[in-house]
Amino acid sequence: MMEDGVNPQKAKVPKVRIPKSIWERLCAPWKNAIIIKLLGKTVNFHLLHARLLRLSRIEGDFEMIDVGLGYYIVKFSTPQDCSLVLTSGPYKMFDHYLTVQPWEPSFHPARAKAPKTTVWIKLLGVPMLCYEEAIVLYLGSKIGKPIKVDQTTLLATRGQFARVCVEVDLSQQLPSSVDSDLEELP
Length: 186
Description:
By secondary structure, the chain is an alpha+beta fold. It has helices at residues 20-27, 45-55, 79-87, 133-140, 151-155, and strands at 33-38, 62-68, 71-76, 91-93, 96-102, 116-124, 145-149, 161-169.
């Protein structure tokens, strides 16, 4: 207890809320950003930046920001480049995987659990009539957060498998397969 009888642990702490319009304005410059982390290896900022330049086929500029604990935020000048890097993995650098995930406004490296990353999944045994974007995204949602269906699947130019890019949480066990009843459609 303090001299005036007020317990500092019970004192009310003001809660600050940012108005939605201001929050949206603050988030807007980050809409073409991703979060990356090289798993199991620490490398120099400039070396990682140079490797990222060579790894992807981006056409515009990008800015890389070290946010600590091996995490980096990469801001792209175009949404196409952001989407390309987000969906073209998985990436390997120095024999280690580079995790890539969409930028999140509340991301903080000290509170980050296991990293998330995007991966391409082959869906075997999917009938050609199911090669519609909404259906393939739905199937992908059974493994992770669906991001994108590949163009070959959408055009149905090959029928051996459908491919979908999903974001997976590496702290969760990933299924080695998913069972479906697609052969027994009504």
